[in-house]
Specification:
- With about 120 residues, the protein is an all-alpha fold.
- The chain has one domain (about 1-115): Cytochrome c-like domain (Cytochrome Bc1 Complex, Chain D, domain 2), CATH 1.10.760.10.
- It is about 55% helix and about 0% strand.
- Helix 6 (about 80-90) packs across helix 7.
- The N and C termini lie far apart (about 50 Å).
- Bound molecules: heme C.
- Heme C (HEC) binds near residues 61 and 77.
Length: about 120
Amino acid sequence: MTTLKIFLVLFVIALCGCDERASGPAGISMVQSRQLVPANTDLANVYNRSCRSCHTVMTTGAPLTGDALAWAPIMDKGMTVLVDNVVNGYGGMPPLGLCMDCDVDQFEALIHFMAAPG
Ligand code: HEC
């Protein structure tokens, strides 16, 4: 019986670990995060081919797009620091956030969008 309980607990934990509905600090799920796309078409194109591949997938360690609670302390660092961190790479994020042709204005717009979409 005890073994069964342990198995069930582990099973549930395992399910949660790869569940698409897993959510970040603000409770936004990966599915909800993936549905958020910048209204501006050019920015949306850039976002779709770079930032989005990590910033809507929790296991990458990136703060999810639209997760206000995750982004609040990050935004407190100030835009200059954040753009620098994207350009140089930061933690698990490769340099330029994999957008090789983005300029500073686009990085700023992308960061604002991910922190507070819409
Ligand atoms: C290959 C995955 C990946 C891609 C692509 C990516 N990021 Fe990130 N990003 C991360 C990870 C992981 C972190 C968290 C790093 C940490 O806190 O250690 C992060 C953190 C950030 C931060 C917070 C940095 C800080 O100082 O706390 C900003 C801003 C950011 N990303 C912007 C972007 C933008 C803009 C794009 C698209 C141009 C982008 N990212 C693309 C993985 C990625």
